[in-house]
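Thread title: Can someone regenerate the structure for this chain?

I was given the following input by a collaborator and told the matching structure tokens would be attached. They weren't. Posting the sequence so someone can regenerate them.
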Amino acid sequence: MLRAVIVEDELRSRETLSGLLKLYCKNLEVVGMAENVHEGKKVIQQKNPDVVFLDIQMPDGSGFKLLEQIEKIEFDVIFTTAYDQFAIKAIRYSALDYLLKPIFPDDLVNAVNKAEKNKRSQKSNSNIKVLLENINRPAAEPPKIILSTSEKINIVKVDEIVRCESDNYYTMFYFTNEKKLLISKTLKEQEELLSEYNFIRPHKSHLVNVKYIKSYLKTDGGVILMEDGSKVPVSRRKKEHIMEIINNL
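Best answer:
Regenerated them for you:
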């Protein structure tokens, strides 16, 4: 049985979430609730929960601020938020879970089931550390991203990724140190995360970091030559767009 704490500034939202958990998540018990950062910290320390449902925006600060105030985090975090593009992007980079308001039962059940698996596997809280580093990083500094395999949680700087290649429902990452890593996420998911950091998709099976493009070869219908020596095909419909990007490098 998971022990949960809800930290949410709106009374109706706290009661709604508590009701949904009671109705749909029989493997979880709500042991405490709080309406702000200050109370949330006290309840978490008193109740020692397995999982915390944490609102991002509260009157006395953010959910991120609350996490910064807890010296040793030994619980899973599921963020609850209205749409906040910056916060959601940071959460996704850190491979943490979030629920968009209004919360739907299926999404809630999936998030709780993940939290239960995390408890059994004693998942590292390096994810939260990466989240807080990304939230507080200078705007000019690229973020870090969590890439998890069944054996290890890998923390990677985005600007160390040379390219990504689709492998059915998996994605192979290639790095500047010539290492590579296969993770169980689709290339589309990686494109959504990395596109704002100068990653482009010249082909349905490839995503490349513009920073490491060396040249464009007109042979074989169009190929991008990367600085690591790899060659990435360019689809016919992407050719004009890719040429424009490369000409502006």
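The chain has a mean pLDDT of 92.
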